[in-house]
Design goal:
heterodimer; A: 399 residues; alpha/beta; six-stranded mixed sheet; four-stranded antiparallel sheet; 44% helix; B: 265 residues; TIM Barrel; nine-stranded parallel sheet; 14% strand
Amino acid sequence: MQMYELPDAHGHFGPYGGVFVSETLTYALEELLRAYEASRNDPEFMAEFRHDLKHYVGRPSPVYHAKRWSALLGGAQIYLKREDLNHTGAHKINNTVGQALLARRMGKSRVIAETGAGQHGVATATVAARCGMQCVVYMGSEDIKRQSANVYRMKLLGATVVPVESGSKTLKDALNEAMRDWVTNVENTFYIIGTVAGPHPYPMMVRDFQAVIGEECKMQMPELAGRQPDAVIACVGGGSNAMGIFYPYIGLDGVRLIGVEAAGEGLTTGRHAASLIAGKPGVLHGNRTYLLQDANGQIIETHSISAGLDYPGVGPEHAWLKDSGRAEYVAATDDEALRAFHDLCHYEGIIPALESSHALAHAAKIAPSMAKDKILLVNLSGRGDKDMHTVAQRAGIAL
Amino acid sequence: MSRIQARFEALRSARRKALIPYITAGDPAPELTVPLLHALVEVGADVLELGVPFSDPMADGPVNQRSSERALAKGVTLHDVIAMVREFRKRDFQTPVVLMGYANPIEAMGIDAFVRAAKSAGVDGVLVVDYPPEECTQFAALAKENGIDPIFMLAPTSTDRRIREVAQVGSGYLYYVSLKGVTGAANIDVAEVAARILKIRSVTRLPIGVGFGIRDAESARRIAETADAVVIGSRIIQEIEAAGPAQAIARVMELVRPIRAALNA
């Protein structure tokens, strides 16, 4: 495979990505790009980032061989990249640590963020508290209901959580609202986007900060399993944990990259969030990518049991990886994800996030038909503590 | 010469400042949009900006977003908006109409199909909020070839280099967004705007319209001391929202009349 050097200078991954924003944001994005380019080439900045990942986040996160579950499935060996063991319980913190350092360098005193499941909001509130920055998190009022524990966590960390009542009252609307705040307060405010979407340089920058996941795996897999995996599997909403683990593997031709979208109640029901599989290219939130939209180009409401995957778009680099054939994209339903969730609890003593359970569900789907010496590496992107209410409710239990 | 150019030249020789009201197509009701456009011309609009509703209007404030949501709830599509312009043109051949909206509905229709349909309906300009010049080279060229002016925005944060770039691609007029923020945001700093307009004028001969934050006759008059055109959007939408369908046209006319008078003074 050729050297992979995307995006180009204007943030394009083939026809995807770019900077589709109103003129009011152009300068802010240019300023951000300049600051990021300078920082990524500055050994001092990178050293500080790595230091924080080690001592504050707790990296490297281990890779764990899920032996019992693999044996039960009766096929390929499943290894889990334990991002759930990070500080704050998910991969999101890798990126917020990076962007907070950048915000401080740029002299911004206030950070804002959008959040769906609340993991990115918590990760942002966490780094804001640590850096002494004011923090405002926009969250759809529907998501606030689904994720009350995370809302309280953000408040404990000193953040202001602003409920968003417009549109479908979920992640996409929170993103719209955060953009509006940024346009208005751009002088003192840094917008910490939590996924590999949005206008350039966000998809590139978030990917770079998350790439530590895959870089560690590339060192850990030979140590633990004697070789690199046959396939790397990750769930895809916006796609940051997937990009983080995929990116360092893109150049390794023998490794399949499989992204798992949320099929919700089933792809044929229309109640899902599988933008790459069921969507069409279009422009939303500052980039061109696959979108779930109606025939008139209006963005449609999505559904997933996991708030973190409930998004009608997807990072532009995933759109490119799909079209180029380098990565495959599949989907898992709410029920399949729940089954994998319970299995991991029962057989491995690990409570996974519902988002990550989609990746687990696909591993469980393909492992049985594979030889026992094949290796699947699943990104266990977060822990499931935040999902207790959702899972209990499904079982008819009120907590 | 495009209808927009012709209008601005006529205004220039009449030493009149342009009034550009904005409404969202389909709000408060699809059947009221064409009558509203005619009413706006009657009270002194020189160019009309007609918003294409979109589910995720990121650059708009809550007032315009609610307007978009009301129109979408009535099922208004880009096809419908173009049909409204066609209907408007049956009685008005003079007043330029600019469609304003977001990229995705246009791309869903296809840029060729959109430009063809818009041209045949009598659309004169198009302002796509999330199409900066560098992301829409093909679209802007196609629009120009078909006699539709691609209109672009400039912001308080636009650098000198950026102003030159945008002025080169844009035609019809330039839309200077007078605030850092979204539509319908707070008050406007007139002196600051005047200074920016001088700067923009030094690199382009295109007329300059100013919008975002103009809410009444007084702010309109003061902005018009330096700008060629004054755009009023959220304030009109607010009036429509408060008035409801039965009163919308009358209340909007009442709102706009004194603003026109102030611009003439």
